[in-house]
Design brief:
It is built from eleven helices and 15 strands. With 367 residues, the chain is an alpha+beta fold.
């Protein structure tokens, strides 16, 4: 029999850094707690829950970003999905939640860089999800049916059809069992050429400290204008480094690609156990001919490899295959590394208070 309680902290085997307690400490305007499932005295699952209060009520949204970390397929514990999620829903109801939102970290399908490249060249598919996948986990659809039977559903709304807080599609590069030569050989010809261009242009990639975040932020603001997203203030990233460093001195890193002493590209990299994520990237229009972004990620990949990381996750990609779409360039850049695109099930909602849940969906659709 599984029991649920507040208090435990995820260990370094957690699948996503968004399930670290530090992530909860970072999220201003949210209250957070770590919750655990117990089999007797053994901790068998965890969730970082973020609570966002509904103004002038005692109700809140309960959000588990890229989690919870449980035995989704019953491989280790043999517990069915209901034994995990039914007591969890009851717990959240007791905390005043009107809606629970989770993001299961199970891989449903993957597409190699070569598969994506062929699909773009053929022009017969508009979206990544329309391409026949290289791998497809047959257990995933059964699990999603179980989620539906337990009352969970995919939220609708927004310009892309679904209202997810975190990206459904990621791009990742497997590092295990490979050396630098093998990884470089897996990059496409343009990527390898760009790395050589950066070397000849004397682009210098350094691991910087938190004191150099203003350099990163200058590039980040320029990227926000170019790509049309709302930027976060410098103070957010300074706080991010302080909060993560309290948890682990090497939890987050800053990399800068400079030429003639001026930063042209930058990235923040979060590391947890054998995983590394590029959490934020930025670049200038100036100096692009020197290919600083290619040099930047090649340095990050080599550092991850030397430190024994198993996966370098470049985080979210759009699912469009239209070269004219503003998100396509990001997909093209990341597929140049080889690797694969990964699909997760997206985020799922459980309405706990039906009226408030429906009102919240209307609010999100109108944002």
């Amino acid at each position: 029999m599984l029991g649920l309680a507040a208090g435990p902290r995820p260990d370094s085997g957690a699948v996503s850094f968004l399930q670290c307690p530090a992530w909860g400490d970072l999220k201003e305007g949210w209250r957070s707690e770590s919750v655990g499932w117990f089999n007797g005295s053994e901790l068998v699952g965890t969730a970082l829950v973020l609570y966002r209060a509904l103004p002038r009520t005692r109700h809140c949204l309960a959000y588990v970003p890229e989690g919870p970390l449980i035995d989704w397929y019953g491989e280790r514990t043999s517990y069915p999905l209901g034994d995990w999620l039914l007591p969890f829903a009851a717990y959240l109801r007791g905390r005043g939640a009107f809606t629970a939102k989770i993001g299961p970290r199970i891989v449903t399908r993957t597409w190699s860089a070569d598969t994506i490249k062929r699909a773009v060249a053929d022009g017969g598919h508009n979206r990544l999800g329309d391409i026949p996948a290289d791998t497809c986990d047959p257990r995933a659809e059964h699990l999603l049916d179980e989620l539906r039977a337990l009352g969970w559903h995919r939220p609708r709304g927004g310009a892309e059809g679904c209202r997810d807080f975190q990206p459904r599609y990621h791009y990742r590069l497997a590092l295990s069992g490979r050396d630098e030569g093998q990884l470089l050989a897996g990059f496409n010809q343009q990527w390898r050429r760009n790395i050589r261009v950066a070397e000849r242009a004397l682009v210098d990639v350094v691991r910087a400290g938190a004191g150099e975040l203003p350099e990163f932020h200058r590039l980040y603001l320029e990227t926000a204008v170019r790509d049309g997203f709302t930027p976060r203030p410098l103070e957010h990233f300074q706080r991010m480094f302080r909060v993560f460093a309290r948890e682990d001195a090497d939890r987050i890193r800053l990399y800068l690609a400079r030429r003639d002493g001026r930063a042209l590209a930058a990235a923040t990299v979060v590391r947890l156990g054998p995983y590394a994520w590029c959490s934020h990237g930025a670049s200038a229009a100036e100096g692009r001919e020197a290919r600083p972004s290619n040099a930047l990620h090649w340095r990050i990949v080599r550092d991850c490899l030397s430190d024994g990381m198993r996966v370098y996750d470049l985080r979210g990609i759009g699912d469009t295959l239209d070269p004219a779409h503003h998100l396509f360039g990001l997909l093209r850049f990341k597929t140049g590394l080889g690797g694969e695109a990964v699909e997760y099930p997206g985020e799922w909602d459980l309405p706990i208070n039906g009226a408030l849940h429906r009102a919240f969906q209307v609010y999100l659709a109108r944002r």
